[in-house]
Amino acid sequence: VQLQASGGGLVQAGGSLRLSCAASALTFSGYRMAWFRQAPGKEREFVAGISWSDSSPRYADSVKDRFAISRDNAHNTVYLQMNNLKPEDTAVYYCAAGHLFRQGYDYWGQGTQVTVSS
Question: Which positions of the chain have pLDDT values less than 50?
Answer without folding.
Answer: none
